[in-house]
């Protein structure tokens, strides 16, 4: 079982993180589609910290003897999921930037041709 001190830290940390997330959403500094994963992780941490026997059961199911080690495992796994989703978003943004840069170059070229043809007349 996890200690009471760790339970309190997890509950307070997840509540504070949730409040910060809501504030970012309210100010439109974070889009809802990006926050869904964070909300899921915070709810998961909150449930496991409020019901430590469930946490012990999850640890035993994963074949981990100590629940604290399961906490580290789940934290690392969650961060890997977040990193993967961010990598996908960065790849999408990079492709979109490349496409927009090409369109801008074509438009500049066309505008220059139009200006040159107007100046000749």
Describe this structure as you would to a colleague:
This protein has helices spanning 4-26, 32-50, 52-61, 67-120. α1 packs antiparallel against α2 (32-50), α2 packs across α3 and α3 packs across α4 (67-120). Helices cover 88% and strands 0% of the residues. It has one domain. The chain has 121 residues and is mainly α. Pfam families: DUF2304. The chain crosses the membrane at residues 6-25, 37-55, 67-88. This is DUF2304 domain-containing protein.
Could you list some keywords that capture this structure?
mainly alpha; 4 helices; elongated; membrane; coiled coil; DUF2304 domain-containing protein; transmembrane helix; DUF2304
Helix percentage range: over 70%
SSE string = HHHH
Weakly predicted, low-confidence segments = none
Distance between the termini: 85 Å
Keywords: Coiled coil, Membrane, Transmembrane, Transmembrane helix
Protein name: DUF2304 domain-containing protein
Coiled coil: 90-117
Organism: Paenibacillus illinoisensis
Per-chain topology:
Blueprint: H1 4-26, H2 32-50, H3 52-61, H4 67-120
Helix pairs in contact: 1-2, 2-3, 3-4
Sum this structure up briefly.
It comes from Paenibacillus illinoisensis. The chain has helices at residues 4-26, 32-50, 52-61, 67-120.
